[in-house]
Amino acid sequence: MLSAAKNFFIGLALIALLSSLACKSKAPLSQKKAKDQSAILLKERDSLLGEIDKLKGNSSDVYINSLKNSLKDALTGFNTDELNIEVRSGKVYVSMSDKLLFRTGSANVEDKGKMALKTLAVVLEKNQQIDIMVEGHTDNLPIKNSSYKDNWDLSTARATSIVRILSQDYKVAPVRLMACGRSEYSPVANNKTPDGRARNRRTEIILSPKLEQLYKILN
User: Fold this and answer.
1) At residue 25, does pLDDT exceed 60?
2) More confident of the two residues 209 and 74
3) Half-sphere exposure of 103 toward its Cβ, with a 13 Å CA cutoff?
4) Lowest-confidence range among 23-27, 37-41, 114-118, 122-126?
5) Which of 82, 78, 22 is nearest to 49 (CA)?
6) How distant is the alpha carbon of residue 66 from its chain centre?
7) Using an 8 Å Cβ cutoff, are 119 and 188 in contact?
8) Cα(177)–Cα(170) distance, rounded to whole angstroms?
9) Comparing C-alpha atoms, which of 71, 64, 85, 74 is closest to residue 1?
10) For residues 195 and 187, what is the distance between their CA atoms, to the nearest angstrom?
11) Closest Cα to residue 66, out of 207, 188, 174?
12) Residue 165 confidence (pLDDT) above 50
């Protein structure tokens, strides 16, 4: 996290340099000198913006990896077939199996699943600059009970159950939370085997850092 903070302040320093360049460009000059200085300023600006883009990527990567490691340290008590943490496309994915969270065909979270969510909530509260998307996923077998019309219904209900627990029981701010049902249409394994279907029955909690404010400053 210290590296991210360092990059942030370096970025502010670059912005100060850009502002200085902008001020120089307003000084009265002859037409030829103004043209030459304009070319120099544009070159220096492009170079600085390139450095800023590098800082953006570095700061994001440092933060994401730090968050992933914090979650792994906090959630060490769960088996890999119950819970998995990985980074994809600049986001942290906490994937929880229905074995950990739910009984078959149900959206009521089991006690062990609530323990995992409670532990997760502690890390989320220490990282307020994160948006949280909860995605429910199923296998491709049609659901057979009267509580849910289809797998769309079940996956959405499961995501909503987790959002309610995080917000109502563990006090994660509702404004940070989103619930989404993906049904059977985003599988991670082959639905033709029992093991594949088990892997597809999961809930993914997707953590996205709010880097917009930093990016606005750096831009």
Assistant:
1) no
2) 74
3) 5
4) 23-27
5) 22
6) 13
7) no
8) 13
9) 64
10) 12
11) 207
12) yes
The DSSP annotation for the chain comes to -HHHHHHHHHHHHHHHHHHHHHHHHTS---HHHHHHHHHHHHHHHHHHHHHHHHHHHHHHHHHHHHHHHHHHHHTTTS-TTTEEEEEETTEEEEEEEHHHH--TT--SPPHHHHHHHHHHHHHHHH-TTEEEEEEEE--SSPP-SSS-SSHHHHHHHHHHHHHHIIIIIS---GGGEEEEE-TTSS-SS-TTSHHHHHHHSEEEEEEEE--HHHHHHH-
pLDDT in tens, 3-24: 454 555 555 555 555 555 555 5
Structure tokens at 174: 């509702």
Q: Which CATH class is domain 75-214?
A: alpha beta
Query: Would the pLDDT of 169 be above 60?
Result: yes
Contact 199, 189 (CB under 8 A): yes
Confidence of residue 29 (pLDDT cuts 50, 70, 90): low
Q: Which residues contact 174 (CB under 8 A, 6 or more apart)?
A: 163, 167
Tokens 């739910």 sit on residue: 102
Please enumerate in sequence order all residues whose Cβ is within 8 A of that of 4, keeping only pairs 6 or more positions apart, or say none.
59, 62, 63, 66
By C-alpha distance, which of 201, 15, 214 is closest to 106? Answer: 201
Residue 1's pLDDT is what? 46
Listed in sequence order, the residues at least 6 apart from 120 whose beta carbon sits closer than 8 Å to its beta carbon are: 71, 74, 75, 94, 166, 205
